[in-house]
Amino acid sequence: MKDSQNNSFIQWIKDNHTMAYMILALLALRWTFVEPYVVPTGSMEPTLKTGDRLYALKCAYDVRIPFTEQILFKTGSVQRGDIILFRYPRDPNVTFVKRAVGLPGDRVEFRSGKLLVNGQEIERHELKDRSLMYDIDDADDKTLFVENLTGKKHYMILTNSHEYDVRTRYMEETVIPEGHLLAIGDNRDNSSDSRFWGFVPMENLKGKAMFIWYSSWDPELKASMVADYSPPMRVLAFFYEFFKFFPDWAQGKAWVRYERIGTYTQ
Fold first, then answer.
1. Domain range for residue 49?
2. Which residues, in sequence order, are CB contacts of 54 under 8 Å at separation 6+?
């Protein structure tokens, strides 16, 4: 039976070789150049929000042999402030998205929530226009800042409450070792990042976040988005989320963030 199935598959390839080559080329393109990603948590708020669908440029830093992790050649280097996708060091099957705050050789420190890089306190100022905070949990208890990370300006938020985890506000000066990065979330008090689990090895990089192609949010789907599903369960979760979202949207319980569609990440 197995030999018969294999022969049928081979015959299908022969009969449809043009389509087979096209599918293979598309898969190779996907593997080498772009990485789709759905933001599952609020750790990068307000820059990236839960439910943002984005594309990352996989060849931003290197080009790899399709369907492998073997690097063919380097195309660039991570810049301080880049939003990076990478394999979580403690579980390479999980993809994280954070901001590269520290580069190899940098000295990074946090004092009372203030970021210092190479002894320089990073400039930030509070932003009074809070319109982009409209769908962020407990927004009234958070302060919105614009941080100038040595030339790259971006949003960042801190929680006003004094009941924060002290580990998110203080970190002794740390030297980033060669071949590694320090990755931190923009939602500084609500992010599992390098402050808790260590540096990101360069070989774990998957790409640089580029732009948001779609964004929607349904609070009732939050639990399913952060769940660690197996591949078959992800397919079922996709259909569940798809058919759950539209009835909720019609009832005003979910929404599409039209203002985010087509915007670049920074």
1. 36-264
2. 36, 37, 39, 48, 209, 210, 211, 212, 213, 265
The CATH number for 77's domain is 2.10.109.10
Catalytic machinery residues:
43, 98
- Report pLDDT for 13: 53
What is the C-alpha separation between 154 and 257, in angstroms, rounded?
Answer: 19
Write the DSSP string, 125-176: EE-S--GGGTTSTTGGGEEEEEEEETTEEEEEEEE-SS-S-GGGT-EEEEEP
Whether 200 has a pLDDT exceeding 90, the answer reads yes
Residue 20 confidence (pLDDT) above 60: no
> Judging by DSSP bridges, how do beta strands 205-217 and 83-87 pair with one another?
antiparallel
CA distance 97 to 115: 19
**How confident is the model at residue 70, as a pLDDT?**
73
What does pLDDT average to over the chain?
85
Which of the pair, 233 or 250, is modelled with greater confidence? Answer: 250
More reliable by pLDDT, 241 or 120: 120
User: In the chain, how many domains are there?
Assistant: 1
Residues 151 and 81 sit within 8 Å (Cβ to Cβ): yes
CA 107 to chain centre: 24
Write the single-letter amino acid at 88. Answer: Y
Beta bridge partners of 97: 85
